[in-house]
Amino acid sequence: MFGRAPMKIFSCRSSYHLAQKIVNELKIELGRSSVTEFSDGEFQPCYDESVRGCMVFIVQSTNPPAENLFELLLMIDAAKRASAYKVIAVIPYYGFARQDRKDRPRVSIGSKLSADLLSAAGVDRVITMDLHADQIQGFFNVPVDHLFGSAIFAPYIENLKLENLCVSAPDMGGSKRANAYARHLQSEMVLCYKLRKKPNIIEEMSIIGEVEGRNVIIIDDMVDTAGTLALAAEMMKDKGAKSIRAFATHPVLSGNAVERINDSPIQELVVTDSMPFNNHSPKIKVLSIAGIFARTIQAVNSNQSISTNFVF
Fold first, then answer.
1. Least crowded by CB within 10 Å, which of 19, 171, 197, 264?
2. Among residues 251, 311, 295, which one has the least CA distance to residue 57?
3. What does pLDDT average to over the chain?
4. Are 250 and 287 in contact (CB under 8 A)?
5. Closest CA to 17 of 197, 274, 307, 279
6. Could you read off the pLDDT of 235-285 as tens digits, one per residue?
């Protein structure tokens, strides 16, 4: 009788920081791999140990540049060609997720294309966290384990023991997420309504709900330029909010985002280590998701339920 396939965890270059934390949680060694780089910029990943018959987990967030996604695709392809039993892509931050629909004529649906590329490479399963839109799970023809940042954010918020708490979404698209937090924390909820001229540029914003005298928690899946976050915080402060904190799973923080956070009324921005970034702000606190991913990887490898990793 054959035993269970051995588990091995590897990392692409962009997510090495998180992969090392995950294997430390599991008390195993990170799989050995290397990347050959050619003078023209081409690169070729290689496994430096056998993966034949193994459950291979590859950790890599697919944030820009596009080489991060392509490196993951090459690693999946290499594992399949090396006779791995199963190949599971662990994608803490699923890039191109904002392109989940045709919001205007003649544009691509980048998140669907990314899913198709992963399937074409031979992935057997995907583990990810806080997708920009839940329906992206349906873009895959393989199982998707969709984890939530609430597993670490909710306990942190509860430990703050804030009175007169109010949960907010920075836009209407985040209302479902904010409502889940509000129900769990038994708090009020307000919404921000915004109109954009074009990506990353806000034309108009208004606050729907009462924030005067309240401790506001703004919940989002990611923070990119921090323009929406900073503007929402300014408006809430003007409307009498007592304190303002923000929680965003994925710290994209492009351009002058950190400076915007520092100059805003936001008391604290709490993010995860789903992707690497240079934290030069005393306002930004990083919570690690290594534990929840380690438990999920262990459960998947053992064919056990992962529902215990969900708070709500």
1. 197
2. 295
3. 93
4. no
5. 274
6. 999 999 999 999 999 999 999 999 999 999 999 999 999 999 888 899 999
Cβ–Cβ under 8 Å, residues 168 and 189:
yes
Distance CA 89, CA 67 (A): 16
| Helices (H), ranges, 122-161 | 150-160
User: Annotated active-site positions, please?
Assistant: 194
Contacts of 265 (CB under 8 A, 6+ apart): 233, 234, 236, 237, 241, 244
Q: Using alpha carbons only, what angle is made at residue 100 by residues 45 and 116, rounded to the nearest 5 degrees?
A: 40
User: If 0-12 CB within 10 Å is exposed, 13-18 middle and 19+ buried, where does residue 268 land?
Assistant: middle
Task: Retrieve residue 224's tokens.
Answer: 């990119």
Torsion of CA 262, 160, 189, 214, to 10 degrees: -70
The pLDDT score that the predictor gives to residue 153 is 97
Global pTM exceeds 0.70: yes
- Hey, what amino acid is at 32? R
Question: pLDDT tens digit string along 100-128?
Answer: 999 889 999 999 999 999 999 999 999 99
